[in-house]
Amino acid sequence: MKTEALTTLLKKTGVILDGHFLLTSGRHSGRFLLCSQLLQYPEEAEKVCRLLAEPFKGEGIDTVVGPAMGGVILAYEVARALNARALYTEKEDQAMAFKRGFRIEKGERILVVEDAVTTGGSIQKTIDCIRREGVEPVAAAVMIDRTGGKLALGLPTRALMTMDIESYSADHCPLCRQGLPLTRPKT
Known about the structure:
The chain is of the alpha/beta class. It is 29% helix and 27% strand. The protein has a 6-stranded mixed sheet with strand order 5-4-3-6-7-8, sandwiched between helices. The two termini are 31 Å apart.
């Protein structure tokens, strides 16, 4: 699937939204990517996740880990495509943690996945969680890199799509100055 076809699919499924949005990071943006809209369609999710998994076939990935919520379905489908195990991390205080009895072992080859990345906070917290367990992830894969290719996670990272979407601190947001209502799209 080429970038144009992926963009068409994201628009068709309602992933790409325009307006004035509060991002998970606390920043504001005029464009929001609600990837859950795509992931509600199993056939489409499977196609996209197979594309996400493709560069890692033959890499001996044992486990795919994603941060809850956005990375749960991605981890499952990418793991399925790689014949690997799927886990997810959940928020605990200001960090991410393995809960629900999930465990990883030294020597596991772990791929970390995320749907859309703006600052990389959630995926970085997941990487940090894995490292606290004494395991170094092999790589990261994201569906959409909103940073325009500036994402730096300290490990090899692949994105299906890279977009350069501006985001603003709340005190420097031109959309706020225009008086546009702020939307919390995940609520």
